[in-house]
Amino acid sequence: MIEAKNLTKVYGDGTKALDSLTFSSSSKSLTLLGKNGAGKTTFMRILSTQLMPTSGSALVEGYDVVKDAKKVRKIVSSIPQEAKPVGISSPYEHVAMYLTSRGLSISEAISRSRSVLKDVGLWEVKDKPTDSLSGGMKRKVFVAMALASDAEVVFLDEPTTGLDPLSRMEVWSILKSMESKLVLTTHYMEEAQELADELLMINRGKLVMSGSPSSLLKKFEGMVRVEGTGEIRVGRTMIKYVRKDEASYYVGKYIIKPISLEDLFIMYAGDQELTYDSS
Ligand SMILES: Nc1ncnc2c1ncn2[C@@H]1O[C@H](COP(=O)(O)OP(=O)(O)OP(=O)(O)O)[C@@H](O)[C@H]1O
């Protein structure tokens, strides 16, 4: 269970990254969505005890992230967005050392590292210095660490950024097979669709909406997206949402796309108050 009550974070330079965020979730897999700078990483860092809130409270599995920080650290594993491997150490050393630092015996750490490195497809490069691996493979080292941790709650900040489409799908299937609860951030809407039981959308540190992908997409039920015309502007693209039975009018002249989480993002992640236009 993840709970936040009036959670606020003001950084030293006065930036208010979280603004009285109140939210609770008992989902197995929670995905945080929001524009760059919305406050997702700040929220994850507070939940995983890497950052102190300015005010308000947050609980992970019932433990307060400030008062019970040591207990929280025992049950969570966190892979930050900016995580960089130690270049001279191998994937195998990364995973095994991480596990021993979490209190596993050396023999347990060795056997679990071996099995996880096979699972994530890093077995053939397990003894190479991570410096010599590709960017995507380096990212997978951290996925392997999270997977191996067996933590009750695993926080992953943009876990598949930089991975090729096949590797990304492999990582999704690994994450789905994990028993741990997952809290992740992503800018890939297919990833959110694939992994999230529940979405939390944040804008300027405030909760915009939360719910299952299917319940949130009900807002667009019976509609399609038309690109090339309309009032909504995303960069140079003009968009509107019309009812499916009106779509035939646009066929051949405009691009018509089925509704996806991207549309939820377009409509709600920013500051604009947008409305459906079916004229
Ligand atoms: N150490 C810091 N000092 C000052 N401001 C910060 C610091 N870290 C983040 N911020 C600011 O806090 C706000 C929220 O940042 P945060 O990293 O939480 O956003 P985010 O939603 O994770 O963004 P992204 O999707 O780009 O990773 C932004 O305005 C950011 O510039």
Automatic annotation (TrEMBL):
UniProt keyword Mitochondrion, yes or no: no
SMART domains with a match to the protein in the record: AAA
Pfam families (alphabetical): ABC_tran (PF00005)
Domain ABC transporter, chain residue ranges per copy: 2-229
Single GO term (MF): ATP hydrolysis activity
UniProt keyword list: ATP-binding, Nucleotide-binding, Transport
Domain of life assignment: Archaea
Family, as annotated: Belongs to the ABC transporter superfamily.
Annotated protein name in UniProt: Trehalose/maltose import ATP-binding protein MalK
UniProt lineage: Archaea, Thermoproteota, Thermoprotei, Sulfolobales, Sulfolobaceae
